[in-house]
Amino acid sequence: MRTRRRIVVILTAAAVVVGGGVAATAAGLAPSLGFAGPDTHTTDAAAIAPARTAKPTAGPEPTTKPTRTPTAEPITEPAARREPTTKPTRTPTAQPTPTTKPTRTPTAEPSHQPTAEPAPKPPALLSPGTSSDRVRDLEARLVQVGWLSTSLVDGYYGTGTTAAVTGFQHKRGLPGLGYVDAATWDALQAMTTAPTRDQLYPPTPTPTPEPDGIDPRCTSGRVLCIDKSTSTLRWLVDGKQLSSMSVRFGCSATPTREGTFWVFRKIRDGVSDLYGSRMPFAMYFSGGEAVHYSADFAARGYNGCSHGCVNVRDWDAIAALYDQVQIGDKVVVYWS
């Protein structure tokens, strides 16, 4: 029994020695290994308590935690250097293209040289509107060369005399002045002789008796009575015939209209708008149809025809008639 106690005491002492070393060792390793020795050898309870809590419990090794990549901190730049957010590109509004201004042609500088003055017209020896014996002499000479009717020899320079003088001037290559200058008078004297008294004072023509077959519409008022059956134009005033002349009419494709009309326009030296042909002494009575002188009728006679007008081939007769007919006078075209 005593031996047994001794062994126990020895073992106890050894345990104490061993335990003290172990405790000392544990005390030194505790901070690094995370555990502490027996409570009986711990003098600092506060130091032991953390070691106990840090001691891992038995069990499976903890799974490896995924590496946590730290979130990249945004780089904060100074406000002065921060790039502005991209703004939408602002397309500038298209400026309207200015309208092209017309090229301004500079005004031609006036020439310092004087412009040529038009040649002055020759002075008149006899002019329209005058009345004298010299005018009568002129008219008698115009009768001699076929430019005036004897019925117009009256000493008055009227429209008939003016037309005759103008026609004579054009025929001789002189300026168509309408009045008599020195050149015209010299040319006329060279072609004529001194008029006799009968030429200066021709007898007054006696009106022809009223013909048979005249249309009743021609017996009153002032009438150009045009008979297609006889190709005759008669000029009557209150049923009395003052003059008569041969006429021709339109072709079958362009016939002269028939009926009662009135003169609505007169043009002494007219020109056809459609055909460009001359129409001297034109007296319009229905649209474009007129009584007028025709050079073609004078040259070809009844071998030709008009485009609807009433053609006269006697220049003197139509010139005299033109002076007598007035706007509003009646025109009768008929078959007798």
Q: Describe it for me?
A:
- By secondary structure, the chain is an alpha+beta fold.
- Helix 7 (295-300) links the parallel strand 7 (289-293) and strand 8 (310-312).
- The model is unreliable at 14-64 and 74-80 (pLDDT under 50).
- The radius of gyration is 69 Å and the shape is globular.
- The protein is built from 8 helices and 9 strands.
- The protein has a 9-stranded mixed β-sheet.
- Among the domains are: 2-40, no CATH class; 133-200, Muramoyl-pentapeptide Carboxypeptidase, domain 1 (Orthogonal Bundle), CATH 1.10.101; 216-334, L,D-transpeptidase catalytic domain-like.
Which H/E pattern describes the elements? HHHHHHEEEEEEEHEHE
Sheet of most strands: 9 strands, mixed
Corresponding CATH superfamily of one domain: L,D-transpeptidase catalytic domain-like
Uncertain stretches: 14-64, 74-80
Percentage of residues in helical conformation: 25-40%
Q: Separation of termini?
A: 198 Å
The CATH topology annotation of one domain reads as L,D-transpeptidase catalytic domain-like
**How does the helix and strand content classify structurally?**
alpha+beta
- Mean pLDDT, as a whole number? 75
Q: What is the CATH class of one domain?
A: Mainly Beta
- Provide a count of the helices: 8
Radius of gyration from the alpha-carbon trace, in angstroms = 69 Å
What is the percentage of strand-forming residues?
15-25%
Total beta strand runs: 9
Shape call: globular
Strand order in space, largest sheet: 4-9-1-2-3-8-7-6-5
- Architecture per CATH nomenclature, i.e. the level-2 architecture of one domain: Beta Barrel
